[in-house]
Predict the 3D structure of the following.
Amino acid sequence: MEENRQTSNSTTESISSDLNDNELYGSTLAFQDLTFDKKLDIRAIQRTFEGAYIRTALGQLSFAMVILKVFSKDFVLVGTTYTIHGILILIAATRSRDELNRVLLWEPSSSELLHHQYPHYASGIGSEVESSGDSTSTATATGAVTPWTVVNNRLVVTEASSLLPETQSPPGREYYVTGGSTIMFLGILSMVNYIVLFYLLYRMN
Amino acid sequence: MVLRKLNMRLKNEGAVARDHLANERTFLAWLRTSLGFASGGVAITQLIKIAHQLNQQTVKTSDNEILDEVMYLAWHFNQEKAEKYLGPSFVLAAIVILAVGLWRYFASQYWLLRDLFPAGRGSIITIFLISLLLIVASFGLVINVHS
């Protein structure tokens, strides 16, 4: 038991010195290990938002440009509806992306780490640190032991999140919020666009 | 907003987020398909308009009796049938495809929450029939103009 503590302590120290290089310059986010699952999630988010949504919006805007520049003057209103549609898709995509990133890739900001206690994030390390005795961790106002410290007004993580017990996953990736509202918004928006388009094309004769 | 009620908060175990994001991308693929049909409708309307204008000029300037007759028929056909209905019918197809995509998204979501996935058949048959109908109609237009 004593030996175990010794090993974990030395591991902690070596990682701590590494992590001091990993302080995030000017960022409010704490350093956080990316687990395999989290990387997969990030890639899926990028495929969806930076890929599919943006492609849809750009397709609309490109064709709007073709209509407005190449087609005859009767199609000005059609081109305008295309432009509005493309811009609204872009806005919906951005909003949805930000919202999902906030939920899925949540990381505690430095002020959150200092002023609040996140038991899920801190409890495992707290006990570890207490037993090791010579921790570099700081105590917050609430008295909880935290795996981070503030150096020169910058947040420095002093414990690796890989030292969390296996049963505790890192923060973030706990919940997923489905994009039903964005999908329904796009559906209704496109339906309105098509109805307007139908009217404009039918009226053209 | 009222639409927010459609957002569901799920526990992200395993590939839950990835599954639902893939479902979202599939809807976007449906949306792009339907937008493609709508854009095709706009383009066809413009093309027929150009053909119409060219035909009018040709009818006026041609001294060939048969050519005049053909151009008159083509012009007549364009004016009465194609120009009026082909473009808007592409937009109608876009509406149907979008509705199928929306239905497919929420159906897939319903079954994903129950660890199942619905294999698509009706949606594929629908898009096949719609495409076939519009292709045949466009082909008919070409045949009519040139016969």
Q: What stands out?
A: Chain A touches chain B through 48 residues (CB under 8 Å). Strands of chain A lie at 138-139, 145-146, 148-151, 154-157, 175-177. Chain A is about 60% helix and 5% strand. The helical segments of chain A are 2-20, 36-70, 76-104, 110-115, 119-132, 180-203.
